[in-house]
Amino acid sequence: MKYKENWEDTMRRFLLWWNGGKVDRPMLRVVARRKEPIEALEPAGPEGNPFERRLDIENAARRMRNHCRTHRYMAEAFPHLTVDFGPGSLATYLGSEPIFAEDTVWYRECIHDLDAWDGMRFDPENRWWKLHRNLIERARTLAADDFLVGFPDVVENIDILSAMRGPQKLCYDLLDEPEKVHSRLRQIDDLYFPYYDEFYDIIKLPDASSCYSPFSIWGPGKTAKVQCDFSALISPAQYREFVLPSLQRQCGRLTNSLYHLDGPDAIRHLDAVMEIKNLNALQWTAGDGHPDGAAKQWYPIYEKVRAAGKSLWIHITDGGVEDWIKGADDIVGAFGAERLYLLFNEMEEKDAQRLMATAEDRWS
């Protein structure tokens, strides 16, 4: 990869992280701002409205390449381009219409009757599917060997049904029509991989590896994030009944899987998540108004992940570089270096060098 100095070593470390091999230090995402670009920058035009920004893949590729020229990807950081309509685009392939906002995408409810809806099928002519597929193909061409193109955040299982049905209606459905919900969820499970496989065939590297860019992960074969944000609205018993089977099926077909645990209301489902045999790792998102992943109040989460023999993905963002180093220091001291991936915000190159020196000196 043109803009990644130690790609071979990064791939080796990712393999150890996924599988729990012996390491000399934890995995680290460290992106440093260069004082000067290493190449002349390309002119990147002004961004349009939220919809236009997602369609202008040429401009997005120029911005990504400019980022590569003005930043250094140290440790296990690597350059990658995300080509996304927003989290949950699978809903649009199945009949929902997107609503584009500045920083996210919403989806119009389209299932008004669980019995009557006939849109749960693979439709190669769906407008949004064709558009998204064409954008991914163009991005892969533009990226060449300079940076990776990641798998888009299509989302899965009951989160997609919630977007199409509406979360409040779906909460009632779980109580009033559970068998119909099970039937629809099985249809979504069966449709996930026909779409996944087409994207995978476009973005995969010559060695068949792939990356999932929203969480900066790479792995051999099919690599993806899995989730259930709807879990904040349901009980542990409902999670085990309606969500866990879908996740088990999905993780069983992925080579590498990372679970996105989103917010304090999702913690009550952690025990169930850890029962997913083929799940490799967990990513914790504390949510707005809560301290970042370095806070010791989250250590009980990490202890359960460690006990289950799975890997940890922890974002450290609060304060400045000294705070990040202190937080990472405490985590490594408590949990060791193996199966640990620590991610930091962009920083100045001198701060990145100091962080890396600390990692080599104290986090081995």
Explain this structure.
- With 364 residues, the chain is α/β, with parallel strands linked by helices.
- The protein has a single domain, classed as Alpha-Beta Barrel (TIM Barrel).
- It is built from 13 helices and 14 strands.
- The chain has helices at 7-19, 50-55, 57-70, 90-93, 127-143, 157-165, 167-176, 178-203, 236-253, 270-273, 299-307, 321-335, 349-362, and strands spanning 27-33, 71-75, 80-81, 98-100, 105-107, 148-149, 210-212, 217-219, 223-227, 256-262, 281-285, 311-316, 340-344, 347-348.
- It is globular and about 60 Å long.
In short:
The protein has 364 residues and is an alpha/beta fold.
List the secondary-structure elements in sequence, H or E. HEHHEEHEEHEHHHEEEHEHEHEHEEH
CATH topology: the name is TIM Barrel
CATH class membership: Alpha Beta
Secondary-structure content class: alpha/beta
Itemize the secondary structure elements and their pairings.
Blueprint (H helix, E strand, L loop, with lengths): L6 H13 L7 E7 L16 H6 L1 H14 E5 L4 E2 L8 H4 L4 E3 L4 E3 L19 H17 L4 E2 L7 H9 L1 H10 L1 H26 L6 E3 L4 E3 L3 E5 L8 H18 L2 E7 L7 H4 L7 E5 L13 H9 L3 E6 L4 H15 L4 E5 L2 E2 H14 L2
Parallel strand pairs: 1-13, 1-14, 3-6, 9-10, 10-11, 11-12, 12-13
Antiparallel strand pairs: 1-2, 4-5, 7-8
Helix pairs in contact: 3-5, 5-8, 6-7, 6-8, 7-8, 8-9
